[in-house]
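dumping these here so i dont lose them again. two proteins, back to back, each one seq then structure tokens. dont judge the mess
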Amino acid sequence: MPQATPRSSLLGARPSVFLLAGAFVTGMFLFAHAGCGGDECQDAADCREDKGPPASNTEWVCEDKRCEQHSVQVPPPDSGTDAGTPDAGTPDAGTPDSGPTTVSVQVLAFNDFHGQLEEPTGQILTGVAPDGGPVRVNAGGVTYFARHIAALRATNPNTVVVAAGDLIGASPLLSGLFHDEPTVEAMNLIGLDLVAVGNHEFDEGSTELLRMQSGGCHPVDGCLDGDGFPGAKFKFLAANVATGVDRTLFPRYDVREFEGVKVAFIGMTLENTPESVIPTGVAGLTFKDEVQTVNALVPELRRQGVEAIIVVVHQGGIPTSGSLVNECKGAGADGLISGAIVGMAKGLNDAVDVIVSGHTHQAYNCVIDGKVVTSASSMGQLVTDIDLTLSKATGDVVEARANNVIVTRDVQEVGAVKELVTKYQELVTPRANRVIGWVSQTLRTQTDSAGQSTLGFVIADSQLEATKPATLGGAQVAFMNPGGMRADIAQGEVTYGEAFTTQPFGNSLVTLTLTGAQIEQLLERQWRPSGATLMLLPSAGFTYAFSASAPIGSRVDPASIRINGVPVSLTAEYRVTANNYLASGSDGFPVFAEGTNRLGGAVDSDALEAYLKAHSSMASPLPAPALNRITMLP
């Protein structure tokens, strides 16, 4: 395989439709995004907007400024066990050996969308101002995301749109309240082709994930929007998620053919997915090693005449803070990014040409071990435009170029997607705007040097209060995991929508019995041999001290562990509350799984709502708790 080259390093590369900073060339903006008047169109998105969904087994195409329906090849229904459906994508765009010796294929990629239909609050760094400060631009929002995808797709008829996991799950209220059906419907409109499963695809279990593919109303809540749910028109891939011997939850890969040249897309999630999902969500599933999975598929693909291989995987890397979206700077070898994706890229067979990654919510554009490795941040703020030049004679990738394109908001929104978002906004607004409490200052997820956060403490306090009565668990302490908090709660009135955004998982509370010795083990597990630290947030009345310089496994002073000022006895038993994610032993805390006399409780968001209602009012908002429960010693 030839050395892959990022587009950003090529002086002669085809210019992107958008500038890196996200602004259009004025003339291009007027030409490509003025919409269409009468029956005229500029791209397929205009056709979908003006004409509605195409007929079955067809797709809109804008030709000579007029909307035409072209037939498409539709793959047969998946049984969940096949190894990918050859030739199940875009029909051949030409006749082999009819002139050019190469074929141009475009892959548009993104990751970690997390049901972010509305405009996210984060910004994308684009450069440095003359005064040395950062230059940032607002980015994201599915209506703008749809337009950028459509405009990029219009540059090449041989286009495949892929996502590297966490398309759904941990979603804002607008999508999460409806079990992420709105996101699937939006991606159907946009024309997503393939998505590798991520860990959050399993938040509601594999049965619910299968419903996302096949459609049908939710088995408990029904179709909350009042109509049916057709399921995904795109295909989920799960090469390393086994349901049995030689059987996978979804197809392992998908092969698409362009002008006689085949391209394979292998989709999978990180092997450690069970560590970040409740056990019931992955029951009966085995998550296999990513590198071994891909390398075992290479001979099979080559027997099918496939030489171009793209891996779409929900695992990623870490760039240096402050890196631009098309850089690859980090703390790894040779100053490149670090993280699991680096070792994976080096371990994968050289037959792999491109790795589309995710999971870490970072942006980077790299070449690692001769493979193009990309990630497009998160929440639909970027789209990675990957251009492949394929040899018609050999099927090999002759050249691979990538460019992370910012999803700016200076483009025309796609009307059909806008209508979908508006529909769900109208359905969710009454519930989202309901005031459930008041806080005197912003409650933050950000932690201090000891790992304490004001929001984490309030959530832990709410969980303790919800399970403290003897009939509800008799809890003496509650612990909250930092990863379960997804957003701050701003000063002032707190709405149900804000509370849901903070805790979007719908976890239930579990109260269980641990000994004092097990509680000490629990606290010691906060520091990992790998160097990672994951500090639990305890409820009011629980205090302890640790030494930051002591060896891992011996950092907590047992004598310092107290509940309401009383030292914890290592031989006594205590009632402890955690959400069902933690209580199952997830996040690397297996001690929770050893707890006995388990009793289920309220949903975490309901507990927070009840706590705010009981302890705050407009006249007397809830104060932020003091950060004094964990003491860090030298």
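---- next one ----
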Amino acid sequence: MSATWTSPRFPFRRPPELDRGLSHHRVAIVGAGMVGLTVALDLARHGIATVLLDEDDTVSIGSRAICLAKRTLEIYDRLGLGERLLDKGVTWQVGKVFHGASLAYAFDLLPETGHRMPAFVNLQQYYLEAWLVEACAASGLVDLRWQSRLSALDCAGDHVRLTVETPEGTYALTAEWLLACDGARSTVRAALDLPFVGHVFRDRFLIADVVLKGKVPFPSERWFWFDPPFHPGQSVLLHKQPDRMWRIDFQLGWQADPEEEKRPERVIPRIRAMLGEEIDFDLEWVSVYTFRCHRLERFVHGHIVFLGDAAHQVSPFGARGGNGGVQDADNLAWKLAAVLRGEAPPALIDSYDAERIPAADENILHSTRATDFITPKTEAARAYRDAVLCLARGHDFARRMVNSGRLSAPHRYATTPLSTPDREAWTAGPAPGAPATDAPIEGGWLLNRLGGRPVLLLFGAASDPALPGLAVLRLPAQGVAADRYGARDGSAYLMRPDQHVAARFAAPAPETVEAALARMWGRAPAALRNAA
């Protein structure tokens, strides 16, 4: 029983299919974790109804994905949860790396002011999931079905048939689209017999959630130790969470017995050695994990789309797993909504593969490099790592070589078919495919004004092409926003509904903006797509 959190229990509601037979839905989602709830809420914000199945009756147990990166926070702000995350979560931007008992160096992830969202907010995953459940229910467009386990799956061309087991019987439903958000042990992935491509690393880490009592000697920062005196020869990570909760990760080595290491008799002495005798604590939650850096070969399989851990998995260092899954949802929701509304061709969904597979590969690359640095496999690799850490105390070049987990950053969709390449040279600003950069503007924040729709940013006296379905936001040609976008008087940016850049123009002629908008919706002629 948690001393700081009581898990909600959601009632089973008898589905109509048990009484009326087979039903059809436009979108079915399997897995009501962080990613499944996020994509359901995002679709609801676009006016699309979903049925969401989960075999459990509550949110996640344990803190799990606690580090929410700036881009993820911006996504949740668009979905209406930004204030709750800021109010409850622990905001941080400074990290420190220790070698032995000494500080190797410190870093600041967001030294620049003038952003609504911080570099990171730490929050236990169960809080976020509970708020997402509330938001989904309030939307009126998410049919959330607890204690509903997917037991069989049949693909039939333009739809998918699902068999669902419940406490009151088994029923079937069909859906135009199935979104697999059912995690690392995905039932949907197993049903399609889809293998992962990548690596499983021979090392294990212990996660402990600990409630510290009395005065705590640690600030709201990310602290990482290589070879600390309290856990010699291994690595340790420390993060602060709300409710006086702290996350501590201990490297164990491959030979460690996962079940044995989770026993309190094994965990408590490790924590005591780290904290000392003067700090009292309660052990809240313990888990043991293995590094995995792999993904599906493709994420889109006909009318089934994989998101989050069901599609790709990385090691926890760098906070790339949960953040990557949320950004999967952000990428897919607007596209699927446009297809279902008839505003875009079904081929637009293919761009999810074109954009999110490179994003997953980037996360896997950084995660693999971090794993190799944190857990060197040879004496030569360990000697190199220790030399780099020693040099980092006094030399900037060595600090760039230290890798305790390159922290999550949004991917730029550099090769997407939805972007229009620059025709002019730009010296600053987000390039096509990059996420929008926030900035303070009159009356609030730039990203809040973008929302979840296509928007044309016009700087200064830029002309408005007055295209149907395209909102316009006019900004001054001077100031913070203009500087961050490298904008000149008369220039413009076309922003996608997920707040990534679709195109930018030194002077936005109606025909060029219209062509870029068509391309963004996947309606561009093949010759134009191939030209990129």
